[in-house]
Write a structure and sequence with these properties.
There is one protein chain. This protein is of the alpha/beta class. It has 2 domains: 178 residues, Ribonuclease Z/Hydroxyacylglutathione hydrolase-like (Metallo-beta-lactamase, Chain A); 116 residues, 3-Layer(aba) Sandwich (Rossmann fold), CATH 3.40.50. It has 8 helices and 19 strands. It has a 7-stranded mixed β-sheet with strand order 7-8-9-10-11-18-19. β13, α4 and β14 form a beta-alpha-beta unit. α1 packs antiparallel against α4. The longest helix has 12 residues. It is globular, with a radius of gyration of 20 Å.
Length: 315
């Protein structure tokens, strides 16, 4: 029988009382199961951390001595136990090392997606599927009107001119994917990368997911107008360069509000859209869906007569 309180949303994050552990806690805890290394899913100073090897490497890079006291590094589909709950990681396709977390207790399987992406991405492990009784999913873009365009359609926009491009992107995951997409769909452009992104690129390369051909930022090159350079920078740097000359400002994101003040819109998302969520539910075949990280009301309405959809309340 499905336990309706197997996972509860608390101030510290998503808590499994049965196993006395948290999934992607928002504050330091004793036992933290980390789906991936983005800052809204991986915090420092946990005592026991369970994650994939790339996630541990990125956390060590970012948090240094505060990354966590004790790490348990798990391979994909390697089973492990925490206080009687059986767990394993399944590729989520979001960024390097990202994982869904399959939990099993009393014969019931609960699948937590973390952040998940179905679109092809050569810079991380592709998503895999596992059937479960309960699917606990993000609903960041769970709206029938939201459909992410293909990366190729978006990237070829940058081929319509020779202007240098200041390309804003998150340092982890998005930047590496963009390097790969630029190499593939805009091969005539030289890719320059902000210094803060270089150590993350090195981790990707160490795990055999090299982003592609790029160079460290060269100020002299970027001052040469209309040479077709693309300079990838993190959000803070992008926002600080609001008066940059001889460049086209572009920010890569699935969010419309991050596109409004730029010369070109570039919709590159690392999350599932509405159709992707429906495909995920088709593959997982859950008896119940629990939602978080977004708005699950559209899913509730869509499955009103066929599948229970519960929006997890905060306790």
């Amino acid at each position: 029988m499905i336990k309706p309180d197997f996972l509860v949303l608390t101030d510290k994050g998503l808590f499994c009382e049965t196993g006395n552990f948290y999934l992607d806690p928002q504050q330091p805890v004793a036992h933290a199961v980390i789906s991936h290394a983005h800052g809204d899913h991986a915090v420092k100073d946990n005592i026991y951390v369970y994650c994939t090897a790339p996630t541990e490497s990125i956390m060590q890079l970012r948090f240094k001595k505060s990354a966590g006291a004790n790490f348990s590094i798990l391979r994909y589909r390697q089973e492990f136990l925490i206080n009687g709950v059986k767990l394993k990681f399944i590729p989520a396709g979001h960024i390097l090392g990202s994982a869904q977390v399959l939990m099993e207790f009393d014969g019931i399987k609960y699948l937590y997606t973390g952040d998940i992406k179905i679109q092809e991405d050569a810079t991380c492990e592709p998503v895999e599927w596992e059937q479960a009784d309960v699917l606990i999913t993000e609903t960041t873009f769970a709206n029938p009107n939201t459909k992410h365009p293909s990366p190729e359609t978006e990237m070829v926009k940058l081929n319509s001119h020779n202007h240098n491009v200041l390309l804003g992107a998150y340092s982890l995951g998005k930047s590496q994917r963009l390097i790969n997409l630029l190499n593939r769909y805009c091969p005539q452009r030289k890719v320059l990368v902000h210094h803060s992104i270089l150590p993350i690129n090195k981790i990707y390369e160490d795990y055999s997911f090299a982003p592609g051909v790029y160079e460290p930022y060269n100020r002299k090159l970027m001052k040469s107008p209309d040479q077709g350079f693309v300079y990838i920078v993190p959000p803070l740097t992008f926002n600080s360069y609001f008066r940059a000359k001889n460049v086209m400002r572009v920010f890569a994101s699935g969010w419309e509000n991050l596109q409004t003040q730029n010369q070109t819109k570039l919709f590159i998302s690392d999350h599932v859209d509405w159709d992707d969520i429906l495909e995920m539910i088709k593959q997982v075949k859950p008896r119940e869906v629990w939602t978080l990280h977004g708005d699950g009301r559209a899913l509730q309405s869509h499955f009103a007569d066929t599948l229970p959809v519960k929006i997890l309340p905060k306790c």
